[in-house]
Amino acid sequence: MPQDTPDVLVVDDDPIVGQLTLNLLKEAGLKATLTSDSEEVISFIQKAPPKLVILDVMMPGVDGITLLNQIKSDPAVQNIKVVMLSGKSFAVEKQRAYKLGADLFIEKPYDIQTFANQIISVIKGGGPKGMPLAPKAPPQPQETKSEYIPPQNVRIRIWGCRGLSPSIPSQPSRYGYQTSCVSVETPHGMFILDAGSGIIPLGHEILKRGGPKELWILMTHFHLDHVLGLGVFPCAQRAGYKIHIGGANDPEKNLQGLIQEVFYGSFSSFSQPPKAEIDLYELQEDFYDLIPNVKLSTLYSNHPTTTLCFKLEMKGKKIVYCPDSEIYGEEATALQDYDEKLANFCEGADILIHNAQFTEEDYEKHKKEGHSCPTNVLELAAERAQVKEVVLFHHDASYSDEALDWILANSQKLINQKKWKIQCQMAKEGLAIEL
Questions:
Q1: Are strands 317-322 and 32-35 parallel, antiparallel or unpaired?
Q2: Smallest Cα–Cα separation from 188: which of 285, 296, 286, 348?
Q3: Least crowded by CB within 10 Å, which of 132, 228, 277, 421?
Q4: Largest CA distance in the chain
Q5: What is the DSSP string of 246-262?
Q6: SS3 label, residue 83
Q7: Could you tell me the pTM of the whole model?
Q8: Residues 48 and 183 in one domain
Q9: Strands 287-291 and 277-282
Q10: In a shared domain, residues 115 and 222
Q11: If we measure between CA atoms, which residue out of 314, 290, 309, 312 comes closest to residue 298?
């Protein structure tokens, strides 16, 4: 490959298209070089960096997307403009290219009348600068003629309450198999707690009802069972919806990285970017006034990865949501203050939705994994926090309905024996509570 510095380096293994591209650029007054050897590209641009590189996507050796990533990841050459030129023009492939830093994606066959001007525009600083986080879209008809009417009171509904199973369950369940998602609908707005697979039927219900058009999705953490449905949340694909997404940053994956991955990444379940307006809010252990008349408090949870518990307060009611949280119970020591912090956080709550994944027997095998057993949850809620009602949540995916019925029966038996003034329910899909 020549070592003089061109304006444009064309990388294409198709000799006909490659030569055509080269000729069009030269006719437009650009100094251009053509190569079909993708293995030499990085070495060449490091020695003689061009203003712009044109990459085919499907090439033998190093493919164009990999070359794009290598260029944009190298501080020495990452400012070189990159245009992708390919017949592999799936929407998701374009998303992936823009996410990795492409300045423009041109489909083959391209328009020979406008091609050179497109390249010149990118060199001069025009053209797309990458896929935006929340692209705007023109209004489009909704799939419903219903008019949304906010509730007068606070409505809680369980849309998913299981942990993730390593295999797809084959038996039906009265409790359901969708993963974590709870909606809290208030006169002032709707809050969606976690985006497990349960958020998908919730989204269809929102579209059917015609709203609300503004939603808050609060993510406790980024384990798969809590984000599984976010990329296919139906409301995200409807113009006219505004979605606020809040969550804690983890050192391994921040909130923006998660959103880019589920909505714009090459493994996204959507074939196109979301049409809803989306904005992000990074949360810490703190207090937040998200909207008028609704207060959000957060507490770091005793669970692997950076995880939050949420407390929503509105209309004189307190709702606490701790889907992944390990309570130490009797084994807590003076140096383990999580139980005390959690009790203070939950004090006087009307509803506590808390992890109770394992029976007491199974919990002995799974201590220090970040999950709780019903006894520890009920003792903390009844004796230390004076909670009014507990909803046992995040059921082990392997537990049958009979096992979950047994857990509830034993929980009720314990409440009666201890004479605790507390209500207890097992979470199940469709469970609705009105405050």
A1: unpaired
A2: 296
A3: 421
A4: 89
A5: EE--BTTB-HHHHHIII
A6: strand
A7: 0.73
A8: no
A9: unpaired
A10: no
A11: 309
On whether the CB atoms of residues 334 and 342 are closer than 8 A, the answer is no
Element (H, E) at 379: helix 374-379
Residue 354, token pair as written in the block? 């808390």
Give the CATH number of the domain where residue 278 resides. Answer: 3.60.15.10
Dump pLDDT digits (tens) for 124-140: 986 544 444 433 333 33
CA 106, 108, 113, 116 dihedral sign is positive
* Three-class SS state of 61: coil
Q: Residue 426 and residue 356: Cα distance in Å, rounded?
A: 9
Which tens digit of pLDDT belongs to each residue from 206-227? 999 999 999 999 999 999 999 9
Token output for 422: 């507390």
SS3 percent helix, strand, coil of the chain, rounded to 5, is 30, 25, 45
How many domains does the structure of the chain reveal? 2
345 plus 401 within the same structural domain: yes
* One domain, residues 159 and 109: no
- The count of other CB atoms within 10 Å of the CB of residue 127 is 15
Closest CA relative to residue 27, chosen from 105, 121, 115: 115
The two beta strands, 32-35 and 8-11, are: parallel
CA distance 357 to 394: 5
One-letter identity of residue 381: A
**Is there a contact between 91 and 272 (Cβ–Cβ < 8 Å)?**
yes
Laid out side by side, the sheet with 104-107 consists of: 32-35, 8-11, 52-55, 81-86, 104-107
> What mean pLDDT is reported for the chain?
89
